[in-house]
Specification:
Strand content: 15-25%
Helix content: 25-40%
Mean pLDDT: 78
Order of helices and strands: HEEEHEEEHEE
Structural class: alpha+beta
Shape: globular
Largest sheet: 5 strands, antiparallel
Number of helices: 3
């Protein structure tokens, strides 16, 4: 893992630099560190509309093929318009040449077990299996188009207000680096 330098507002070194270089979008907080990337809660440059900003970590800057593959995968996802994959509103490079994309916030929340419990607080198999079916269908469609998720885990999945799952990092290509965990 990369060594991070904490700031008073809970943002690490990567957060602080992103705040000033992502085309005017204001980063508010780190939501999740996801393998090779970081997901931030931010506000759109044209107002207070909440967005999610995903960027690859610093060590990807020197991996030219990773950057190219990231943008190719974003284009494929945009063409596919898969329902449970975070929509790409904007993409590009930060001043440090870190690839990023922005998705509308849609009130996404990190995955937790609460939405899958019944009134008695027990795990509800129907709710759980519905969630798993959505994820499996999404991966089936994307895999058929060569977009394999290389690091699927709970921190890569978010839920909207209706508890529908969204995978946030399907654009991340596979590669080995000290910070990709």
């Amino acid at each position: 893992m990369a060594v991070l330098f904490a700031y008073g507002n809970g943002m690490d070194r990567e957060d602080k630099s992103v705040e000033h270089v992502v085309k005017g979008h204001k980063v508010k907080a780190l939501v999740a560190k996801q393998g090779a990337g970081c997901l931030y809660k931010a506000h759109h440059r044209d107002g207070d509309e909440p967005i999610l900003l995903f960027t690859l970590q610093y060590d990807t800057v020197n991996h030219g093929p990773v950057t190219e593959t990231f943008f190719e995968r974003l284009d494929q996802l945009d063409d596919l318009k898969v329902h449970h994959v975070a929509e790409v509103e904007e993409s590009g490079l930060t001043d440090e040449k870190r690839p990023f994309f922005i998705t509308p916030f849609r009130d996404l929340q990190p995955l937790s077990p609460e939405p899958f419990k019944n009134d008695e607080g027990q795990s509800d198999p129907i709710k759980t299996l519905t969630f798993v079916r959505h994820i499996a269908q999404t991966l089936l469609i994307t895999n058929q188009h060569g977009l394999v998720h290389y690091n699927l885990r709970p921190s890569n999945i978010f839920l909207n207000k209706l508890n529908n799952p969204f995978i946030t990092d399907l654009a991340v290509p596979p590669f080995s680096s000290p910070t990709a965990a």
